[in-house]
TrEMBL record:
Domain Helicase C-terminal: 503-673
Every Helicase ATP-binding domain range: 256-422
Residues annotated for Zn(2+) 2 binding in this entry: C492, C495, C510, C513
GO biological process, one term: DNA replication initiation
InterPro entries: DEAD/DEAH_box_helicase_dom (IPR011545), Helicase_ATP-bd (IPR014001), Helicase_C-like (IPR001650), P-loop_NTPase (IPR027417), PriA (IPR005259), PriA_3primeBD (IPR041222), PriA_3primeBD_sf (IPR042115), PriA_C (IPR041236)
EC code(s) of this entry: 5.6.2.4
Family annotation (CDD domains): DEXHc_priA
Keyword Glycosyltransferase carried by entry: no
Region annotation Disordered: where it falls in the sequence: 151-177
Note describing how the cofactor binds: Binds 2 zinc ions per subunit.
Underlying gene: priA
Protein known as: Replication restart protein PriA
Broad class of enzyme this protein falls into: isomerase
UniProt signal peptide: none
Length: 792
């Protein structure tokens, strides 16, 4: 009998392939191995090991020296694949992609002073030694010196230092005594080495000067200790004194962490109640245990403020994980996570697949956020999968939100999740009072978007030296451009969607596929000049109006598509938080999570934006977004106000926001969903069939429906007959129908939906359906979306 392993390879296949293990090779489940796959080699992970007659099998080529993929993560891969109906290899890809692409860490070295004076001293050499002393001074370590060679004192860095007169200027002689400006030159134990290039830059000389000093023995080249990533965290660094609401919640979470058992907890607290402070106490307990914590955030790129708060509480920043990291950083972070060195990671949804050594806690911040849903490839909701991973790791998972998803609320109500509540804002802050502006009666003049009431409110706030936020969840200048003379509308050539004008970029852009075209001078249809007109507002247009109405206000407009990327956004948000702007105009990006202490007024320019959607979650999502947005006001001492500009002030969502009665809103929503058998009271899956050829997509979608209705009842599910009302356990199949976005990226799309009672095996049904249906041909693709968030 030979030893055989089943190896899962990170490609779009579901099965693990078997390979023979060469004698002498030590493998265990989870080992990374290189295996022949077709004509090439691939890196895969050992999924199982057994004794078998493996004579006709290919051999494992090599073992990689990566830490093995631990059992909980392997089980997680299997679980996610089963749940989402994705090939296991594709899910594995998410867990190992980083390893695959990672560049090997480059060895890094730096110089330190030896304390031995150089045999010969020159200006340049003196500058190097001075710069090094400064850079190694713990006082300046916190913030690396922006101006180089600070210790040269009054003369500054720009003026090249002239040789000191013998005896008079103490600098050189001091240097030869091993001190410079009172700073010890000798290598402090622990003084960090400085890379040669950085030192040369700081001293304003060439690397050659440094090499000379090394040869002379005054400097030594040493291996740089790798910067720790997410390590060196101190649970007692910056203790926060919690208030009477926060204390029991924090104690509860800490006790759960200490128990090392799975549990799911909804931490529901109004905006500004200190949810972050509370779950920090759970993280502190994880650190005391020497384990690891993961915090998921929906907008990871914008968490500058969070990182600073984290550092103030724990003495250092957590590791970050998101798509904006450089390759080297990814690789370093990955290793730090796998080795357990990284004690805390804050990340986007993909961080859920990191190979933690000893995960003791997962926090999903703003758990209701749609951004947790990945809509392509493996279609999954990181919030739900976080609960699964926590269970496999036997760790608690905290779902934090001021406006929890209805699913989560129901899980808390039924006791599946524990429920911790923070009913009021921290300190003396109170929730903003919310009023409506009825656009039917109190609206702005044509072509304007700010009502007189809103303008008066903003003027008053600015007059008091406070900030105002104009919230409009629409990027660009105008959502639709048309020709006044012939009525031509600009549509995306790849999608059934209007092109959005971005005046900033002087372009028309498709928000679905990214198609960009210049805004023409003539109408392409009727050749009329200057006939194009913008319909409706986006944030750019609002900024234009604000500049007109408030010419003296310091205004900041923020949108995720503005140039400068994440770092610029972070800096601008920080500046806004410091009060450097009077008026902030932005999309949902500014609505969430930020603390702007002097912000007292939020104007929601178009509260109806999300309500027009016909999807089952439209009301819930609008409620969440607007409550978050209005929740930015009045977070410090001063009272906050919010104005909702709306055409339908009587709409239940608007009413719920105004009354602040979240309980009633959730109760109504629950009721409706229960009656409709919609999640969380029933289960939904969408099947999207697409092809470049419309006929092919439609034909296949119909074939799927026919197959479903012809399927015999099986254990776990039965398909309801067409036209009839579903009985008990039956699954209803709806559609196919052309998708609301009928064409996306040149592909025609048809949707089917499966609606099932909670007790039915929805995934089992979908699997059986795909197996029984004819195989897709002619470029037809099928995407299964379990628990869809989007109905487009
Ligand atoms: N115990 C505390 N001691 C000092 N400051 C606190 C305390 N609790 C909360 N704060 C402060 O109150 C503000 C709001 O807290 P935090 O951001 O944690 O609230 P949140 O519930 O997460 O809010 P949101 O849901 O709106 O993001 C912050 O500035 C925070 O520093
Ligand atoms: Zn498009």
């Amino acid at each position: 009998m030979a030893r055989v392993v089943d190896v899962l390879v990170p490609v779009a296949v579901d099965t693990a392939y078997s390979y023979r293990v060469p004698a002498g090779l030590v493998l265990e489940p989870g080992s990374f191995v290189s295996v022949p796959l077709g004509t090439r080699h691939a890196t895969g992970v050992v999924w199982a090991e057994r004794e078998a007659g493996g004579d006709n099998l290919k051999q494992v080529a090599a073992v990689r020296d990566w830490p093995p993929l631990r059992r909980p993560l392997r089980d997680f891969v299997d679980w996610v694949a089963r749940w989402t109906l994705s090939p296991r290899g594709m899910v594995l890809r998410m867990a190992v992609r980083a390893q695959e692409t990672a560049a090997p860490p480059a060895p890094r070295s730096g110089v330190v002073a030896t304390g031995k004076p150089p045999a010969r001293m020159t200006d340049a050499r003196a500058r190097v030694l001075a710069a090094l002393a400064t850079m190694q001074d713990p006082q300046t370590l916190i913030r690396p010196p922006a101006a180089p060679a600070l210790s040269l004192g009054e003369r500054g860095a720009e003026a090249p230092p002239t040789p000191s007169p013998p005896g008079g200027g103490s600098r050189h002689s001091a240097a030869t005594e091993g001190r410079l400006d009172g700073r010890p030159l000798a290598r402090d134990e622990g003084a960090p080495p400085v890379p040669k290039s950085a030192l040369a830059e700081a001293a304003g000389c060439s690397v050659g000067v440094i090499d000379g000093l090394i040869e002379d023995g005054a400097l030594a080249l040493v291996e740089m200790p790798q910067e720790t990533i997410g390590g060196d965290l101190d649970p007692g660094f910056g203790n926060t004194v919690l208030n009477a609401d926060q204390r029991p919640a924090a104690a509860d979470l800490a006790a759960r962490v200490a128990s090392r058992a799975f549990s799911a907890i909804l931490l529901e607290g109004v905006t500004g109640s200190g949810k972050t402070e509370v779950y920090f106490e759970a993280i502190a307990e994880v650190l005391r245990q020497g384990r690891q914590a993961l915090v998921l955030m929906p907008e990871i790129a914008l968490t500058g403020e969070f990182l600073d708060r984290f550092a103030a509480r724990f003495g250092a920043r957590p590791a970050e994980w998101h798509s904006g990291l450089t390759e080297r950083r990814r690789e370093r972070t990955l290793r730090a996570v796998a080795s357990g060195e990284a004690r805390a990671v804050v990340g986007a949804r993909s961080a859920l697949f990191l190979p933690f050594a000893d995960l003791g806690l997962i926090v999903v911040d703003e758990e209701h956020e749609g951004a947790y849903k990945q809509e392509d490839g493996v279609i999954y909701n990181a919030r739900d999968m976080a609960v699964v991973r926590a269970r496999l790791e036997r760790a608690p998972v905290v779902l934090a939100s001021a406006t929890p998803a209805l699913e989560t609320r129901v899980n808390a109500e039924t006791g599946r999740y524990a429920w911790l509540k923070l009913p009021s804002r921290f300190g003396s802050a109170t929730l903003p009072d919310i009023a409506t502006v009825d656009l039917r009666r109190e609206g702005p003049p044509r072509g304007r978007w700010l009502s007189p009431k809103a303008i008066a409110g903003i003027e008053a706030a600015l007059g008091r030296g406070e900030q105002a936020l104009l919230f409009l969840n629409r990027r660009g200048y105008a959502p639709l451009t048309l020709c006044r003379s012939c009525g031509h509308r600009f549509e995306c050539p790849n999608c059934s969607a209007w092109l959005v004008e971005h005046r900033f970029r002087a372009a028309l852009v498709c928000h679905h596929c990214g198609h960009v075209e210049p805004r023409p001078k003539l109408c392409p249809e009727c050749r009329e000049a200057d006939s194009l007109t913008a319909c409706g507002p986006g944030v750019e247009r609002l900024a234009e109006e604000a500049a007109l109405v408030f010419p003296d206000a310091r205004t900041l407009t923020l949108s995720s598509d503005f140039p400068g990327g994440v770092e610029t956004l972070r800096r601008q948000l920080e500046a806004a938080a410091r009060g450097e702007f009077d008026l902030v105009i932005g999309t949902q990006l500014v609505a969430k999570g930020h603390n702007f202490p002097s912000l007292t007024l939020v104007v929601v320019v178009d509260a109806d934006v999300g309500l027009a959607n016909a999807d089952p979650r439209a009301a819930e999502r609008t409620f969440q977004l607007l409550r978050q947005a209005t929740g930015r006001a009045g977070r410090a001492e001063r009272e906050g106000h919010a104005l909702l500009q709306t055409w339908q002030p009587e709409h239940p969502v608007i009413q719920a926001l105004v009354s602040g009665d979240a309980e009633r809103f959730y109760a109504q929503e629950s009721d409706q969903r229960r009656r409709g058998g919609l999640p969380p009271f029933g289960r939904l899956a969408a099947i999207v069939v697409s092809a470049e050829d419309k006929g092919a997509a439609e034909a296949h979608a119909r074939a799927l429906a026919r197959t479903a209705h012809a399927m015999p009842a099986a254990r776990g599910f039965r398909v309801a007959p067409l036209g009839g009302l579903p009985q008990g356990e039956e699954i209803t199949l709806l559609g196919p129908a052309e998708a609301p976005i009928a064409v996306l990226r040149k592909r025609h799309r048809f949707r089917l939906a499966a609606k099932a009672p909670r007790s039915a095996d929805l995934q089992g049904f979908l699997r059986a359906l795909l197996a029984a249906a004819p195989p897709p041909r002619g470029g037809v693709k099928i995407a299964i979306d379990v628990d869809p968030q989007s109905f487009l």
